[in-house]
Amino acid sequence: MSNLSAEPNSSADKPLHVCYFGTYRAEYSRNVIMIAGLRANEVRVSECHVRLWTGIEDRVQAASGGWRKPGFWFRVFRAYVELIRKYRLIGDYDVLVVGYPGQFDVFLARLLSKLRRKPLVWDVFMSIYLVANERGLVSRSPFTLKLIRWLEKKALGLPDLLIQDTAQYVRWFETNYALPPERFALVPTGADDRVFAPPRVQGDKTLHSPVARENSLNVLYYGTFIPNHAVGVIVEAARLVQNHPYIHFTLIGDGPDKPQAEELARSYKLANLTFIPWLEKPELVTHISACDIFLGAFGETPQSVMTVQNKIFEGLAMHKPVLTGSSEAVLTYFTHGENIYVCERKNPRSLAEAILLLAENPGLRQKLA
Questions:
Q1: Which residues are 44's β-sheet partners?
Q2: 293-295 sheet: strands from edge to edge
Q3: What 3 state SS string does the chain have?
Q4: Once rounded to an integer, what is the mean pLDDT over residues 48-53?
Q5: How far is CA 164 from CA 34, 130, 145, 184, 304, in A?
Q6: What is the pLDDT at residue 40?
Q7: What confidence category does residue 69 fall into, taking pLDDT thresholds of 50, 70 and 90?
Q8: Are 338 and 364 in contact (CB under 8 A)?
Q9: How many CB atoms lie within 10 A of CB 53?
């Protein structure tokens, strides 16, 4: 890690200058929070960013074999030419930081940082190999999955420092890529408290969402409906508590598991559950303000149990009682029954029992909040 102290600032009064680099997802909460956090700590951040991907489906299509098409490589070439052009305009800096996801950006970043003799840091945050594997890429394109793993392993060896959010995820990298844990620094996921903040008036019904019900207990999930979250478990829990009509569930968002969740809810003819498409943040915050119990993630995938999902931090930032699946990662940061409530993962009955317990204990909900 000695390279990280190379070429220190000539003046103690000169702020650290970070070049935040890559084709990273500029709107993704991890990058937004990292950049805002640096600036809040008086670090000068110059963003050197070019948009390469149009969305999740675009990345899935490329990973499923679209990368073989000449048009894809022309788009990549054009993006990196523009990235180099922007980089040349940045001028001098102290540290080059590659944002998430940066598995491919790291190769160019290592070359550029070496030419300027600057340290390179990469916020890995998630393994795209693991994500692709959990999304079923191995069945669609096993060669692509092997290629992603090979590229990721090479990329992980390039930076002077790697950043991850939990010690559990670091252990996964250690096991799967033989990376020593001292190569990593931990930065929790956190929440953007400029957006996710407590309601100005607690309990004000005017803050409640259009589907929040008077004299009801409102249970909220929002997210991307991926296996990590196990939304089917939430639907099953809604079925188990449907004889308590004052409990109402709202599920906000879109994603691969949403059609199955909607079909499951239809098959049970659930009247205590509402689906809403993805919302912009101001509307989303209104719905969070309305809820009485805020749901996290309940899947058993490695990605789910090794991370503390950003929605958990966001619910806590808004002073809501958060109920999520138990894991070592979650219980490293939080204490069950003190500032979070946990249940068994992939267990609808355990989730339903936890919801009923919280429903009947407003004092506990207030304590958690």
A1: 17
A2: 273-276, 247-253, 217-223, 293-295, 322-325, 341-343
A3: CHHHHCCCCCCCCCCCEEEEEECCCCCCHHHHHHHHHHHHCCCEEEEEECCCCCCHHHHHHHHCCHHHCHHHHHHHHHHHHHHHHHHHHHCCCCEEEECCCCCCHHHHHHHHHHHCCCCEEEECCCCHHHHHHHCCHHHHCHHHHHHHHHHHHHHHCCCCEEEECCHHHHHHHHHHHCCCHHHEEECCCCCCCCCCCCCCCCCCHHHCCCCCCCCCEEEEEEECCCCCCCHHHHHHHHHHCCCCCCEEEEEEECCCCHHHHHHHHHHHCCCCEEEECCCCHHHHHHHHHHCCEEECCCCCCHHHHHCCCHHHHHHHHCCCCEEEECCHHHHHHCCECCCEEEECCCCHHHHHHHHHHHHCCHHHHHHHC
A4: 89
A5: 12, 14, 22, 7, 15
A6: 95
A7: confident
A8: no
A9: 16
Mean pLDDT of 181-210: 76
- What pLDDT score does 137 carry? 65
Q: Are 316 and 288 in contact (CB under 8 A)?
A: no
State yes or no: pLDDT of 275 exceeds 90.
yes
Which amino acid would we find at residue 215?
N
Which amino acid, residue 127? S
What is residue 72's predicted lDDT score, i.e. its pLDDT? 77
349 residue type, one letter: R
CB 113 within 8 A of CB 119: yes
Is there a contact between 68 and 119 (Cβ–Cβ < 8 Å)? Answer: no
Percent with pLDDT over 90 in the chain: 75
- The residues, ordered by sequence, that sit 6+ positions from 69 with a Cβ below 8 Å of its Cβ are none
Residue 60: its pLDDT value, please? Answer: 59
Distance between CA atoms of 176 and 181, rounded to whole angstroms?
12
pLDDT in tens, 94-114: 999 999 999 999 999 999 999
In the numeric block, which tokens belong to residue 333?
């940061």
